[in-house]
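Appendix B, record 7
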Amino acid sequence: MFTGIVEELGEVTAVENLGDASRFRLRGPVVTEGAQHGDSIAVNGVCLTVVEHEGDEFTADVMAETLLRSSLGALTVGSRVNLERPTAVGARLGGHIVQGHVDGTGQVLARTPSENWEIVRISLPAELTRYVVEKGSITVDGISLTVVEAGTDHFTVSLIPTTLALTTLGRKQPGDPVNLEVDVIAKYVERLLGDRAQGATK
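Structure tokens (predicted):
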């Protein structure tokens, strides 16, 4: 489990095409400290497994399903990525519950700068609209954010200078893809209510 609090801005140093998968090598001095084979690291909000670890770099295999359902397939050598290690038991939950399981992708639609923050508008797939509410939580490229406006096909988030400086959202431009993970609690509630409604009709 993750919290959506990005630990560092890493970099893709190599991409190897494996046919039905890709192997990424990524640099991240903070997240690789003490890393071992089999550990999990979230890369732009996608939970990946460490295959190898050497120095401040690690490799991870990404299967075709993940490449198709996330924006990781667009990464190239030199791409910057948000990195986060799993939350330790007993640690503070600084963001919200994040699984590292991408529900869909959106695109940055617009950026509106202000003196002390920036509003970013992001497209929202129709199948995710029901899970996104104003003042609710959403994960964008692995970043735990609060929804400012929830539209039928988009939402907005307000970014403070720290988020702009220390994550990929400070660099994303209109048209760039982002990974989206909605609040897992909303999905569980929907499923439970659906099961209850079905039970009542039997």
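Remarks on this record: Residues 184-201 form the longest helix (18 residues). DSSP finds three helices and twelve strands in the chain.
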